[in-house]
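Quick check before the chapter quiz. The format below is the same one you will see on the exam, so make sure you can read both the input and the output lines.
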Amino acid sequence: MLYPQRFTQFTREHADTLAALLCGLLLFLGWFALHLGWLGLALLLLPAAYLIGGYESAREGLTTLFKEKELDVDLLMIVAAIGAASLGLWRREYHLIIDGAILILIFAISGALEGYAMQRTERSIRSLMSLTPDTARVLHQGREAEVSISQLKVGDEIVVKPGELIPTDGIILSGYSTLNQAAITGESLPVEKTVGAEVFAGTLNGYGALQIKVHKPAQSSLIQRVIRLVEQAQTEAPPSQEFIDRFEKGYAKVIVVAGILLATLPPFLWGWDWETTIYRALTFLVVASPCALMAAIMPTLLSGIANGARQGILFKNGAQLEKIGKVRAIAFDKTGTLTTGQVQVFQVIPVSEYTQGNVLKAAASVESSSEHPIGKAIVQAAGDLDWVGAVQVQAIPGQGIVGIAQEQQIIVGNAVFVQQYVTNLPEELREMAQSLEQEGKTVVWVAKNPTPLARRGAGEVMGVIAIADEVRSQAAATITRLKKLGIEQIVMLTGDNEETAHSVAKAVGIDRVYAQLLPEDKLDVIRRLQQQYQTVAMVGDGINDAPALAQASVGIAMGISGSDVALETADIVLMADRLEKIAVAMHLGRRSQAIVKQNIFVALGFIMLLLVGNFLGNINLPIGVIGHEGSTVLVTLSGLRLLK
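Here is the expected output.
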């Protein structure tokens, strides 16, 4: 039973592609049969190609005609194809049926590509939904019971164990833990939270068990608001798409009306015979069909997409390749985008009688027993040093950790915590620590007591360790390159604090910073930028960036560090997380614009030339088809230049 279900699902998801492939196969077999002189078989295969490949376009065209009272290119192409086939049967020039089938095939392929683009929104929402568990552990009269998230009510008390996802927004009633909120708020470091603090659905609980009170309906949680924002932003049609739709409808109206007039008036106005009149009218429909005009765009964009893929730039659709060449402003997320998203030891400052190695070894000896990200960063930095793990380790949440190593008591923590064990903090070191904190670094103090039994206050400070989220090595060069390309405005959006945000912005060369933002705040900034600069790009990697990525004219996600939702929502993905590829993508976009404009000029030139020739009676249908197909091939080959 499993295989039939999978086959049914596959055919449903890829129906347009399968129709285009089958149309192409039947077209080839029909041409081959015609070439061998098997007319009966050819006339059986080719209508099947018309029916299978043109069904969707005919349905959409007729729906638009009857429901919206509009003509579009879908219907025009079907009329042109059927006209060519009818003329081929009438004059027994059966190769014209092949030309009509080729027109059908081109539109079938185009429809399949559009179908894949439309599936992105649904995948994005499914990815967002997977961030929160389906059930929550509710505490009722001292007993735990699992209930569906949808059944949670305001006032319910839920239990979240270490390592679990928070199921819904709430307030901590009891417990203490560190929560990884990077995917929701963009904060680079896990946040320590205890009684009274608010927690968000979709964030990851650390080492402590929490008892949480639900203070708002589950559908009003932050993650659910993100889902709704993504849905709204992705369903808003951009102005360029609306313009293209209007152009196609207007073009189709003109050609169809002109074709009808050409098929009826000449016998009365100029005395043409009906055979010549219909012949000219059908030739007009063939040469006026916009295949060359459509081919002026799609091969160019597909070539640019292939070129980008070879360089680690994934364009999800051709429209974004065009748009990125028009970008005037760009917004960067901080954590995981301009920075690596991995906390690391930034600097070790020992007091005069100790070395950096002494400070790192002492800190690593006790932090090796800790699961805190800062502790892991310290242990990693001391990996090549010779140190021994401490015993009798005791962690005081939110303050620090103590333990015994080589018969000495080691103290690691914030300044207030360490002061309980030492006589005083060196003034010069205190000033340096404050300076580092103003730059957005997290400062950890390291001290020791000569013996485990020494009285409090008898210890001495060994030094401080500054922890930071490392700025990507290519970030500053990328910002400089974008400014040289003429980008008018570059801003940074982050959920992190002001000090850290401005520190990173200064390091990479960004002047305008928006800090302490929630997902909807980032969305508002993008909207304001669009009002001023029209075409705006957003570069991000987290769940909190998804609404902004969807709203931006061009959403760019980091491929390795990016969350699933960011990757699904974005229009462009940097597969190797290399920021410098943004400039490459913009160059490709600008080249594609130039080539598309050249191709459109050539396509319209050919159409006008063939139309004039048809009206003057200087071309017949085969010449018209050759001119039509020739112009299509020419602009297609022109578009393939972007493969280089």
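If your answer matched, good. The chain has a mean pLDDT of 80.
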